[in-house]
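Try this one yourself first.
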């Protein structure tokens, strides 16, 4: 667990998971929240709402609230992924697998090979991963790619947290009047109303997740 009530978050649960080859998380559902799964490494054999398909690195699978899903490591090495819930206390109910399975991808899966980024601001590209456009009820999730020394405008969200996870590189994160340095695997979660922004302090591209427990576009106020 990298974010939930134990770390001070009141609106998010974010976990990192590693699954050995041949091991599976059984079919289940979350009756009170969406679940978003971003594959970091390996081969994920997904079963979502009776649809079976394979997802790999940089692919995202959304299981909307109440929808049955499970995942199995179908590769020879570790399967690593991040799981995101727009709620601090997720519920989980195990289910029997469907009797009929369709071998095709579900519409709520976003594959990197099919995605094109948009320019969020000069030097910053954004991949839209999860939102109302693919069936989410309460999650907006995007990936930002920062070129060296590029930055995002300082801002705050009046009524919700934002989870900011550094996937690669070094990101300087403004937090109120302070500044912290995030490296790969680090996360911070500004509370509602707290100003924050990011700058790439490394000499290579840096990748960051922006995780919101609200639908897009997330309400924000830009500040100096």
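Now uncover the answer:
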């Amino acid at each position: 667990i990298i974010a939930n009530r134990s770390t001070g978050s009141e609106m998010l649960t974010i976990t990192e998971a590693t699954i050995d080859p041949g091991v599976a998380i059984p079919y289940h559902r979350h009756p009170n929240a969406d679940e978003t799964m971003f594959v970091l490494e390996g081969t994920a054999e997904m079963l979502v709402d009776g649809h079976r398909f394979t997802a790999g690195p940089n692919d995202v699978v959304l299981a909307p609230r109440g929808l049955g899903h499970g995942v199995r490591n179908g590769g020879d090495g570790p399967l690593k992924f991040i799981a995101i819930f727009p709620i601090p206390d997720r519920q989980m109910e195990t289910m029997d697998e469907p009797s009929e399975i369709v071998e095709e991808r579900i519409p709520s899966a976003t594959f990197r090979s099919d995605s094109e980024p948009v320019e969020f601001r000069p030097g910053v590209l954004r991949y839209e991963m999860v939102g109302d456009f693919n069936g989410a009820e309460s999650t907006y999730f995007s990936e930002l790619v920062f070129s060296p020394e590029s930055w995002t405008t300082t801002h705050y969200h009046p009524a919700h947290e934002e989870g900011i996870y550094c996937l690669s590189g070094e990101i300087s994160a403004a937090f109120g009047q302070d500044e912290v340095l995030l490296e790969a695997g680090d996360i911070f979660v500004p509370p509602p109303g707290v100003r924050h922004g990011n700058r790439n302090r490394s000499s290579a591209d840096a990748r960051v997740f922006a995780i919101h427990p609200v639908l897009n576009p997330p309400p924000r106020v830009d500040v100096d």
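Discussion: DSSP finds no helices and 21 strands in the chain. The radius of gyration is 17 Å.
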